[in-house]
Amino acid sequence: MINFPDFEIESNAEISNEFRKLNIFNFRNAAQFVAGLDYGRNANKNDLKTVFSDNCGTCSTKHALLKKLAQENGFENLKLFLGIFRMNGENTVEISETLKKNNLEFIPEAHNYLKYENVILDFTKVNSSAADFKNDLLLEIEILPNQISDFKVDFHKKYLRDWLNQNQKVNFDLAELWEIREKCIEILGN
Predict the structure, then answer these.
(1) Where are the domains of the chain?
(2) Of 124, 127, 125, which is closest to residue 113 (Cα–Cα)?
(3) Contact 87, 159 (CB under 8 A)
(4) How far is it, in rounded angstroms, from Cα 181 to Cα 189?
(5) What's the farthest any 2 CA atoms get from each other in the chain?
(6) CA distance 128 to 20
(7) C-alpha–C-alpha distance, residues 5 and 120, integer Å
(8) pLDDT in tens, 7-44
(9) pLDDT at residue 1 above 70?
(10) Are 121 and 113 spatial neighbours (Cβ–Cβ below 8 Å)?
């Protein structure tokens, strides 16, 4: 059993107040609420409050929201990570046909998650787990909540560009690979 992070939501900052409006007063309940939200892109991922108004989120906005909640309440042991993992037909069954159609074993995909005491916590969906991607992680870096949009996309595209240069047998340029990736993400959102 992992040592699950928990703290009372006592701050009067904006994210803490949004959770308290929903009668959520501790991190454990906040994490359960966030995991239970639908998976979907937010109207404005630079404004984490849109997770509440859109009633959904992605791995980026959901985990950045929880990290921001932890920061507001002085709980600094919870870390936000950006990992690149091999998204394939085994760990992401829904996209197996799209990969097969494009002759790809996998696509390096960026994923956000939290770590507490070096244990990965994934609140993307109710049943999300580190086991979904941990064995396929290619690299990871710690980031801040404000790095989930432009920084994440730039980092991901740079990784894909380097990966394509090292894998000449993959017959796509970056724009084409990104388009296939977008189709995969769209499938996951449905």
Answers:
(1) 14-72, 78-189
(2) 124
(3) no
(4) 13
(5) 54
(6) 25
(7) 11
(8) 999 999 999 999 999 999 999 999 999 999 999 999 99
(9) no
(10) yes
| Cα–Cα distance for residue pair 181/161, rounded to 1 Å | 13
Query: What sign has the CA pseudo-torsion 9, 15, 17, 19?
Result: negative
Token readout for 119 is 């244990």
Tokens of 167: 């894998």
Q: Give the pLDDT confidence score for residue 2 in this predicted structure.
A: 59
Q: How far is CA 119 from CA 55, 81, 152, 186, in A?
A: 27, 11, 22, 29
Question: What pLDDT, in 10s, does the model give residues 123-134?
Answer: 999 999 999 999
DSSP calls for 35-47: HHSEE---S-TTS
CB distance 144 to 158 below 8 Å: no
pLDDT band at 183 (very low <50, low <70, confident <90, very high): very high
Provide the token pair at 62.
């959901």
Q: Which two tokens stand for residue 131?
A: 């086991």
Convert 126-158 to b/e letters by CB count within 10 Å (16 or more is b).
eebebebbeebeeeeeebebebbeeebeebbee
Give the H or E element holding residue 88. strand 78-88
Q: What is the percent of the chain with per-residue pLDDT over 70, rounded to a whole number?
A: 99
